[in-house]
Sequence to fold (341 residues):
Amino acid sequence: MAWDIQYKKSVALPQIGWSLDGHKPVERSFVSHAHFDHLARHKEIICTAGTAKLMRARLPGKRREHVLPFGVTEPLTADTTVTLYPAGHIHGSAQILLEHTEHGRLLYTGDFKLRTGFLAEACATPPADVLIMETTFGRSHYVMPPAEKVFADLLHFCRETLADGGTPVIFAYSLGKTQEVLKGLSGAGLPVMLNKQAVALTRIHEEDGIVFPAWREFVAAEVTGHVVISPPHSPGSTFIRSIPRPRTAVVTGWALDPGAIYRYRCDAAFPLSDHADFNDLLRFVERVGPKKVYTLHGFAEDFARTLRGRGVEAWALGRDNQLDLPLMSGIVEDTPLPPTP
Fold:
């Protein structure tokens, strides 16, 4: 008997009565991490301690929390056990492994990455029969450069801007990316201000033992000489207009796309992501060794097609999944893609 996987903007597993990263409030849901697109006011949740703290700050309210440590297997239903594994996405982010006596092992990644970062726990790759995986960067040209080079380039941008009498403003989302950038500036000796949206979230990281370089909350009247880290703002926003001689840069995996500076309306773009790039996605599937893969988000159809070309049964959840079947000498066959880089 196979897993019954239903998808309507989020994943539901009716056989065990749980959802995975439910987008709308449900009775029971696993919450992989505390980004808003993975949160809702569920009545009962499974998550890690780090995610629970961040979720309480971002989405206050009453709910029943099952806070599980990584790597500890516990019963979920009479026939199912649950184990959380690190996802490598942001602090506290988790994958969930469900093992059913009849349906086998199902692994749901949530957002993840194999590349190591400063804050997220290192991503695990437990074996599973069925894999539901995030595929944001599921096309082959999305390969991130080494983080060391990205931070070196970002530091050069900041120092050059300050030397010219300007204020470097780094656009980074308030949870995850802001803290990663702040940690990446360790040892640079640059004074840093954080947008108020990131202050409480950064303090939660510090409560969990993460050490950052010195920082303070943004004060417009005292910003001269500081590096500012903030969620993206338009050039004409009140926030940007309060900063003397701003020079803006966005930190995102989408910086690999041509024209990223025009899309984000900034002066520079640096390719750093907390999501798996294309090579990460391929390596992850190889290590988990699933019999069937369901892809989710981003270029889900493209990556499912890539996996099918490599002999892996793969389908994009919520998509049409049209097969590419070229005619060759009167015989219909799949055309394999090149081997894993």
User: Anything to note?
Assistant: The longest helix spans residues 147-163. The chain has two domains: 6-141+275-332, 147-270.
